[in-house]
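Exam prep: given the inputs below (a chain plus S-adenosylmethionine), describe the expected output before reading on.
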Amino acid sequence: MEKKLTHFGNAVIPEEEKVSRVREVFDTVAGKYDLMNDLMSLGIHRIWKRLVAADTGLRPGDSAIDVAGGTADIALLMAARTGEHGRVVVYDINKEMLRTGRAKCVDMGRLRGLEFVCGNAEEIAFPDNTFHCATVGFGIRNVTHLDRAFAEMRRVVKPGGKVICLEFSHPASAVISKLYDIYSFKVIPEVGELVTGNRAAYVYLPESIRKFPPQEELKKIMETAGLFKVSYYNLFNGIAAVHIGYKV
Ligand code: SAM
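Solution:
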């Protein structure tokens, strides 16, 4: 039987290899991941994550899961909303990212209401209808089957709950797109190598962004996964986009 293939950045690899290749990337960069985000985006990723947290509409006592939650940035923002009686799960396939995120929360004295769970977005280890909201920030691009991950996020959200995806996307303007290409393919790998010692991880990053479905296509994938009223808005001309869908 022929092997199913998928993208890993520009490389085409057998589907079953993608999880381990992605894990390798985040194993090596986990300790410097937050610093790299600040350097690459000049801190703008923090504003984008705040927008997502505001979009959740979470209230004190609510529950949420941040899928591919990494070092817990979005989870911390959601936990600030759900408060001491709320519950926010940071769910990620990579133990090093979770360890780094948990240590950060301990340092901040912000562990209350947060849980760290290791697992694959394509098989979320929680029962149906558990959370008021599910988010995924800059994570869905790394998952092998986006449709399965969205279907799982939909499954674990309560009826009426939201699924929110923040992801790099495709700029609308050709000029911005050109400038962004130069920055992504020339500057990011250099900075990545300097800070993390892993150039390959920061070559993979822009490549994986370019391979990711554009805004309208992602909207359709979310709709096919069973989400309703899916809408999106662009950030910085479409360098990133926030998609929001509902479970009915
Ligand atoms: N959400 C965090 C943020 O916005 O800073 C981390 C994003 S980081 C670019 C991508 C994360 O996705 C990594 O922590 C990685 O381990 C996780 N990831 C990749 N594939 C995954 C999968 N199949 N299931 C769960 N997490 C996954």
